[in-house]
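Lab channel / #folding
Pinned by the channel admin:
"Please post every new chain as: sequence first, then the structure tokens as a reply. Keep commentary short and put observations after the output so the thread stays searchable."

First post following the new format, from NK:
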Amino acid sequence: MKLPAEVRRLALDPFGELPTPREVEQVELDGAIVSINPWPGAQIVRPAGVGPPDVAATVEAARAVARERGKQILAWWITGEHGDLAAALEEAGLVNADTPGFEAVENGMALMTPPTGRPADHVRIGVVEDWTEYAAVSEVNRAVFGFPEVPEEELRRRYSEYLAARDLGTTLFASIDDRIVAGAYAAFATAGINLFGASVLPEARGQGVYRSLVLTRWDLAVGRGTPALTVQAGRMSRPICERMGFAFVEGVRVFVDDLADSQPRG
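Reply from TO:
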């Protein structure tokens, strides 16, 4: 099936296609854009246009942006369109590897017909509406992705930002026996919904939790009049997505730049 161009772009470059969250700062460099978010973990760097004319110089400029804002890890998001940058990024010290929140290869996938399967009867899916639900999902994300702990004051600030940005997307939770065991985000785009951050606690896996979260987000997409789902699936979620009918679009390589391993020049 030939995908509409806008759905393909959303599957491969969600950070470029989705509206920029209010709390994210975009810094334009020569041939790249750095997105600085307030959370721990990697900050995304996306090549712009044909990419940096001088990769090494742009890598250093991105590092300077990150250091000025107290960030340690940059993740360069490299689609096939910019695959020719890979060697230069490696020469600059970057590594195509996993980092908390991202895998070395993120599989761009898309779905434009109802997903197969049905929700698990014993799993309850809901939209995060209150602080208790938000804190529980945040803890699941922290445990699954290996993020550092966040002080409650900071977490409550993020909760306020989440409530203020419900026009951009919504967070779902999955519970079993009234215990929240998973969370996932639905990011709203004009072409459909992009699936972000699905995390399921190890003890709840294999019970249809992930499938139920996907089915609910399909219903959200249909309800918004944009019946398409896209996702950048990791090695665990790709097989599930394939069984549900998602088509593989292209692999995106993530090149990690850990500033702890690099020193500023000059």
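NK: The chain has a mean pLDDT of 95.
TO: also worth noting, The two ends are 52 Å apart (CA to CA).
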